[in-house]
Here is the input.
Amino acid sequence: MRNTWLIAGLIVVIGAAAPFSGLYPLFLMKCMALAIFAIAFNFFTGYVGLLSIGHAAFYGMGAYFGGYAIKTYGVSTEIALLIGMMTGAVLGLLFGLLAIRRRGIYFAMITLALAQMVYFFCVQAPFTGAEDGLQRIPRGKLFGLIDLSNDLSMYYFTLLLLVLSIVVVQYLVTAPFGQVLKAIRDNEPRAVSLGYDVQRYKLTAFVLSAALAGGAGSLKAMVLSLAGLPDVHWTNSGAVILMCLLGGLGTALGPVVGAVMVVLLETELASIGVVKIGSLSLDLSTKVPIVIGVIFMVTVLLFRKGIVGEIQSLIDGYHRRRAEKSAT
Amino acid sequence: MIISTQVLLGQLTIGLVNGCFYALLSLGLAIIFGLLNIINFAHGALYMLGAFAAYLALQLFGINYWYALFLAPLVVGCFAILIERFFLRRLEGLDHLYGLLFTFGLAIALEGIFRDRFGSAGLSYAVPAQLRGLLDLGFMRLPTYRAWVVVASLFVCVSVWFLLERTRYGSYLRAGTENPRLVQSLGINVPLLVTLTYGLGAGLAAFAGVLAAPIYQVHPLMGSNILIVTFAVVVIGGLGSTGGAIITGLALGVIEGLTKVFYPEASSTAVFIIMAIVLLIRPAGLFGQES
Here is the structure.
């Protein structure tokens, strides 16, 4: 837990200062909402070792339900977040009950197929607004008191939620519950023989992860005032996988680093626009998927531990060498 | 509810055609999974490449449909062989998920390239002159091209089945699926076998793509939609049996077609709902022998 407080403190300091460095609060809030989404994904895939390609369903439905509640019924902000989390949890339970029956590669395919079903549902359902999505979602008042329509107050509220997510997830991961998850990931038959109800642990972790993803979705809906089909689409599941893979699966800080990198990449490429190299002109704004795909491949081939993971193993290696040296 | 026989039979044949595509794709996924132990997420992109290869061959070089039917799988197969040789081979021995993630990235990149180049509107590919018109079967009129797709895919599926179950290459391949090390120690070049198998699976996907080009529009995203349905088909049928993959694919295509007639709202989700039911009743899948 000592590391957790260090990481939380680091994020609080950087986060508190960031809006004064000239970065837009809206951009930072988008990063943070996606970072929470990535933390949720990492909690499951990073620590249980099963790949979910269905997390966009929890995130997107959380965005729709939370956004719909606050827009139509005018609930307060924290209620909208809770509705998002509940949506994610219920959906996660349904997905989990089916998908947990199969392992490895099948698990990934089942979550993807179920998420695609949710996507088709959203295309047809009346409340989602189909192609237009839910627009002009208000941010509401926190506890019915604090108005969050101001970007800066919403920003600090989002930062608080991010730090809270990190602390809670790190607590779960280091607690006995998380230790059992890691044991299942590393050697499932052994965990079974030790008497753990493996399926129940997996399901619980999946539901918790889905709940947090749903919460992240409703947060994003309020931050950007928008919930739409791209949030539920499988490419969004792909994006969250990339964030965690790039940052480092199974590390505390990886998802945050990955989320910032992916959002930065998308906005930077879009804003750079046309680049001229000699007589060749290249419009980068339309190349985002290509670059994302290539980064995916390069990460898998060259640094599977991700940025944070590679740095960590460098530090570990340094410590080990020093310890060996002092021992001789 | 009164449904005309014409509509019913029409949707049934469309379902059968889709079923053929599911069968060809899941067959490729199954043989690749058997030997490489990865789920080839780029399978949909390879199907899309097949359709685009046919389209571009016609536009740029005037190569007609019949040549494209052979050339597109060959070209896409060679492309896949390069991918296997230079990239996928490096992931051997790691967790299966890395293969999936690599091919996932490959699929996104390939789709991105074609979307960037050709836009998101579909391109049409004309039905070849010999296959236009309708076949009069007495009780219904069947578009000739649909009949051709069914015949051609079934022929290819049966040939692949024959290749796997009745030839020397097939016996090596099946043995390699069981125990690659032992096969290698008997003097069979397993890495070469793996490469060829990936090429074969990719070729099957591209063949389906060429067949699909005149029916559906040639579209950069045509592959990802069909691939996710194929995944559900694979979950239902299991990856263990070649025959199982073919039969499940065809059956689900037909069921999907029937849903379009009786309850159109559910037609896009029918296969997923069946998958959920199968998971509840038989968690290992219909033909599954999962360890």
